[in-house]
Write a structure and sequence with these properties.
heterodimer, A: 82 residues, mainly alpha, elongated, B: 525 residues, Amino acid/polyamine transporter I, 2 domains, two-stranded antiparallel ribbon, two-stranded antiparallel sheet, globular, disordered N terminus
Amino acid sequence: MSLLRPGQSSSEMPDKLSKMDYYQIITSTLMVILGAIILFRSLMQSFMIMPLLVGGGLLALGVYRLNFVVKYFRKRKKWNHR
Amino acid sequence: MTIEAKAAPRQVKSELRRDVSVWGSYMWGFADVGADTYVALGLVMAYAQGATSLVFAVAGIVYIMIGLAYTELASAYPVAGGGSYFALRGLGDFSGFVAGSALLLDYTIDIALFATASAGYINFFMPYIIGRDITSFVTNIGPFHNVNPVWCAETLILIGFLIWLNVRGIRESSFVNEVIGAVVIATESALVILAFLFAWRPELLAHQWNTQFPSLHNFMYGSSIAIISFVGLESISEVAQETRRPATVIPRTSITLIFTVFIFAVAFSTLGLGILPWQEFAKNIDNPVAVLAEAIPFVGLIAGPFAAALGALILFISANTGIVGSSRLTYYLSKFGIISPWFDAVHPKYKTPIRTILVFAGIGVFETILSFLTPSAMDTLANMYAFGATLGYTMVFIALIKLRFSEPWTPRPYKMPLNIKLKYKGRKVLFPVLGVIGTLGVGTILFMVVLTHSIGRIAGPAWVLLCFGYYAWYRKSRGLPIFKSIEHNWEKQQMDVLTSAEEFDLLEQYKIALTERDKKRTELK
């Protein structure tokens, strides 16, 4: 998730987030929550590789995607202060 | 007249239009790959039992490598033809034909398998509508046992509708894919979230893992069937020639798609084993995801039928991508002298490859009828699907490695990770380590398919041989070599493709790289 349109360079900053961006922010947040729940519940039971993979995968992917969101807002903040 | 010109189509006056967007490209892939879990879950559970999620993960890792290889090649060579084109360009005409026939088998099977599975999910509603279960229509016809004529007829009606849709043109088909696909992704996510929150029991998963681990044979069979959960990235390559700005769009859509599908496949199988015993899924091979959704407390009553409707829809659009893929693949094959230019004809009004749509969707119809004469239509089709996919993918990996050596100057907007810098014939080459690992991975799965699939190991090679018969006849009748390659002007073609795709930066890079190469060659002389 880049929060940038195809062909748009990182030096350009979109003023408004699109509906797709909002959708991706919501799904990324849900991934983090769900991944944490799966990890917690499976670790409470016993050590099992597959739930760890699914939970860890969702958590990691969610964090990775949210990282772009955070970067975007930081960059936009700087952009607005110019 | 060059040999290529001799083999080139005489009838093509219209080229495929570039009207597939980012979302469209993603949805072509998702419609194909995303639907696979709906088919594979029950089939894989029946063999992999308590290790189903492990089997999905193993096949998924191989799939990720396949996906990365396709991303590199499709963004570097954005032309219709996909894997077959890469094999032809990297390894020559005969290899292009072998890969093409394998992938063509998969596309025609895709039409048959996914239309059958779509009808299977529709049949979930049959007891509510007519008060009879689909299994009550099973009958014996002569020497053929367990034939289900009603299910077969439903499948044929669906294929007929898809043929009509595709003859009308990609804009309409792409629109269908995009709208339905958006609904599917949203509801599939909701299903996973609700199921993990309210129904998933890690203790049941642990119990099945510990007590019902499959035998080695079943594990191998399950793994080779699980690969069908990930077949479909080819679709993105197939519509590359119709994608706007492919070098920019394809890496984005492919990589997103790879991880979306991997997560869904592993999540569904982990969910399944944590909600119900694997036997429940094995009993309901025709609609396993609906069974899974029905088992969710509070919402199961609605989620079950909803998942069935969703499954029917997504499988329907997946069958649609099979028609699109096969028609585009044959369009390309005829363009490069692999099959007759007769297939090239484009509909004057709708600009769609009308003959290829009719012929290869017709083959899909034939395969559907034949598979319904076997004890399990879905298992038979999945067998052949796995063979075609693994053979085609093996060729793609080998082509990727070869092209890194033979065409290092071609701009690659995306490269597979993990490369070793080498010097080859005085030029720098990036050797793809992951490409070698991927070749071994997919080669192992191909080996497992041949070893364990009684129908796939006979019907798959028989199809390739049949295609070879046609290929040899056609090449001989045109005075073209059978095992050797005809002359192709790849450089001109690459420039034309990049120009038509409006990838002017890449075009510039390519021209500069070629000039430098020619300069070096002159210096050496």
